Amino acid sequence: MLLTTLYIVGITAEAMTGALSAGKRNMDWFGVMLVASATAIGGGTVRDILLGHYPIGWVKKPEFLVITCIAGVITTVIARWIIKLKGVFIRLDALGLIVFSIIGTKVALSMGHHVIICVVAAIVTGVFGGLLRDLICRQTPLVLHQELYASVALTASTLYLTLLWLNIPELPATISTLITGYLLRMAAVRFNWRLPRFQLESESSVH
Amino acid sequence: MLLTTLYIVGITAEAMTGALSAGKRNMDWFGVMLVASATAIGGGTVRDILLGHYPIGWVKKPEFLVITCIAGVITTVIARWIIKLKGVFIRLDALGLIVFSIIGTKVALSMGHHVIICVVAAIVTGVFGGLLRDLICRQTPLVLHQELYASVALTASTLYLTLLWLNIPELPATISTLITGYLLRMAAVRFNWRLPRFQLESESSVH
Amino acid sequence: MLLTTLYIVGITAEAMTGALSAGKRNMDWFGVMLVASATAIGGGTVRDILLGHYPIGWVKKPEFLVITCIAGVITTVIARWIIKLKGVFIRLDALGLIVFSIIGTKVALSMGHHVIICVVAAIVTGVFGGLLRDLICRQTPLVLHQELYASVALTASTLYLTLLWLNIPELPATISTLITGYLLRMAAVRFNWRLPRFQLESESSVH
Questions:
Q1: Contacts of A44 (CB under 8 A, 6+ apart)
Q2: Which one, A149, A166, A178, C90, has least CB within 10 Å?
Q3: What three-state secondary structure class fits C111?
């Protein structure tokens, strides 16, 4: 219930940021809805396909897809307002990331997968939406060289799994993970924490 | 039977336009076959994966894949001739779009999905082939800012579903949808109908 | 046993070449692990998704994913050394290609698919890892205009299927395919064998 509410808030916020990327590429309404939906529910879709977890979330509940399409089109009208609310969206995005990570972990867990796969499922759910957005909009994927993003998903998933393993009931485990993960992500944004980069001259290649 | 014949015409035409894109990227024969096949049967493949509809069409009937590969290679020989027949290909592409939309709708319907998912299946079948082609060839996806394409798939699918819901038998429903959808697409091309675009300055971002 | 050992050697080598591509794009450690894994096990993943062969290889055996992630991160430390060992990597890549092709063929065969689909499974397993790497790193896919790559996978798969069809036991069939395929690939690299290219002026289009 808590997770579902936060999930809807999360996909709405993600859809809106996706729609802004589509706008920068001068796309039409269909493109806006496609990029908005890919950003918001693309991560969960890739996760479900990788795990063979059918039916995929939005195929079972098409209302999630309707929400992201509507959020995308509304964005074309209120884009200026959204851009001014940048701070709000960074917070919603952080919240969405943790919600996506917890849901991803739960799906893999419910299928009886290895703990490593549960963490991978969290990362895929949290990160691949933005990756798809950047592939469609032909931007170098942000998640691959920005502040901690996948690492936050990994940490949230690990924390959640540890709490469950310690027999903590689901609700407090979820709330603790949400708060910790959210604070970690906001700290990463504020202090510009990044993973080490790997820089290589463009000429060096084994191909 | 009618649909299968038109489907084969459709994938052949789509494969040929895909091969032309590969030629502009200076690809070798394998690349030509890959792009030709992705363009022609990529939409149906993505639809089947999203719906968990296994085995995928061309895995069950590999002859469809053979047709698209051969059509791709033939294109390398008769490219000049194809380019001159631009008008014919626009018509075949329009026909293919409606055939793909009807088939997509039928597949989702046969799996018992919500009507929204049937329409989405039609759009995915009709549109994602071209999207894959443009991703592989690194072009900004045409379907995201050209004349009505996804909208035609949506309209065709909705019309088809409505006719079935009105208890019209399948053959007349299919033919009516084919004619209406084809005319709509050709009108969109001729009169350059487009969806409203969403334009945003490149600097504005919440990321 | 032989195949599993060679498979681990193959994915390690592929992960390292993938990590080098990530380094040229200045990605962080997560990006390096993503590109390394996509390069090494992306082909098998796409094959399993296309065939509906669940659970996917690395979901069942997460240690393969752990290996590619570790190989990726190690590459960031020993990159200079790897680049100097270019010759070794070309050999390992050739070996990996044949191993991937044989495994792809075996998976499709075990599912009872048509011989054409077995060959396609070999090509997808051998080629799509590099294709995913180049899509994520926004390079024009190498496999689409370099020395024979898909053709070697096709030849290896066809040879392997023919040997099995001639009732040759699996081990000698595997070893013969490995040796023949490896030599073919190395010859293609040395003598710069390529498939004919399809060149088209950029202006010519039916779209």
A1: A56, A57, A58, A100, A103, A104, A125, A129
A2: A166
A3: coil
